[in-house]
Amino acid sequence: MSEAKTPARTSMRTPGTEGPLAGVRVVELAGIGPGPFAAMLLADLGADVVRVDRPGGPGLGIDPAHDVTNRNKRSVVVDLKAPDGPARVLDLAERADVLIEGYRPGVAERLGVGPGDCHARNPALVYGRMTGWGQEGPLAQRAGHDIGYIALTGALGMIGAPGEPPPAPANLLGDYAGGSLYLVVGVLAALHHARASGTGQVVDAAIVDGTAHLSSMIHGMLAAGGWQDRRGANLLDGGCPFYGTYETADGRYMAVGALEPQFYAEFMRLLGLPDMAPARDDMARWPELREAVAARFKSRTRDEWTAVFADSDACTAPVLSLREAPHHPHLAARGTFTDHGGTTQPAPAPRFSATPTAVRGGPALPGADAESVTRDWDLPREPGPPPASLPNPAVHNPQ
After folding, report:
1. Which of 163, 98, 83 lies closest to 129, judged by CA?
2. Are 52 and 92 in contact (CB under 8 A)?
3. Which has the minimum average pLDDT: 15-19, 110-114, 319-323, 325-329?
């Protein structure tokens, strides 16, 4: 194997907003869902992320100017089916610390940019693979999406009221929690190992694995007899009347999480039902308690109840919409959301005392950064204009 080049690195950062991953180079082979989100998280943390876009644009047709998951990145366009396509990606991989791809198993290898090809040029590269089913197993070659992955792991079966179909929890649980976050954890762990040993490796991040891992505590409770294997019958799944949601007089909702005795007592006092507080310890009375709590919440609007529970430890909060959330006084005070380029969006998280993060740039537009990436990464100059729009180069495993 040839040794990877280590050219001088030119920072595109604003002083004071580098983030803890400043100096780390990431190549993202464009996909949809959890791969781009994982790369966005690395970019938010300060990594120099170059997204390799396909001719023809993204598979879901989202306007690139509004795709927040491509913020803080740069973009080049490469046709991986063109004669020089794989070589151009390998030139990037040779100079990178991390590469992320989300193709179906075997596609990257067929395109000439699989782990073997990349490690031949850069033995220290961390090669992150994002799929739903994983790189092996009976379903590895099947298409899929978030809802199917969480269904198979038992996670979807825990959600919702008994006697009703489990609701689809957007794509947060599988794609992003079980997928993107586990890919990022794996990539950072492998990067730590590569920095210490000089040896890269492949990170196989499967949404089914990550989602199953998220349910570790529940499986422990199940084994101990503290969790029933059915919906709406447990402490944390809406089965108990002091952990769930209730409709208010205006058709909105309040969320209640008054689990501990002291918080429950405060909740019942402010709700105006102190005499019913003992029903907490008698499961036979839970239906009666739920009915009383529901009736009380229906007597006032959501905002009226929000005022009642403000500044208390009753663990009760209004259920806000996506457009309402950024205006909540606590989230506004913390700057949990930010505005960049006219788009309100979540700010980078978590926060760092010595290496603060920031939204440094809007969504990377396909191919807009070819010149700066070529210069900063010391890439070979490509003759002529970028390739014209062509069909997508590979069958992507939808996430």
Report:
1. 98
2. yes
3. 15-19
> DSSP letter at 2?
P
- Burial (CB count within 10 angstroms: exposed 0-12, middle 13-18, buried 19+), residue 96: buried
pLDDT tier, 7 (very low <50, low <70, confident <90, very high otherwise): very low
Q: How many CB atoms lie within 10 A of CB 38?
A: 31
Alpha carbon 152 to chain centroid distance?
A: 19
What pLDDT, in 10s, does the model give residues 129-183? 999 999 999 999 999 999 999 999 999 999 999 999 999 999 999 999 999 999 9
Give the residue ranges of DSSP H helices in the chain.
34-44, 85-94, 107-111, 115-121, 146-152, 181-197, 207-214, 216-223, 261-271, 286-297, 302-309, 329-334, 370-376
Residues with a catalytic annotation lie at 145, 175
Q: How far apart are CA 169 and CA 174, in angstroms?
A: 9
Q: Are strands 25-29 and 48-53 parallel, antiparallel or unpaired?
A: parallel
16 has pLDDT over 50 = no
CB 80 within 8 A of CB 113: yes
pLDDT at 6 over 80: no
Q: What is the dihedral of CA 381, 382, 385, 391, to 10 degrees?
A: -140
Measure the CA–CA gap between 351 and 19, rounded to whole angstroms.
9
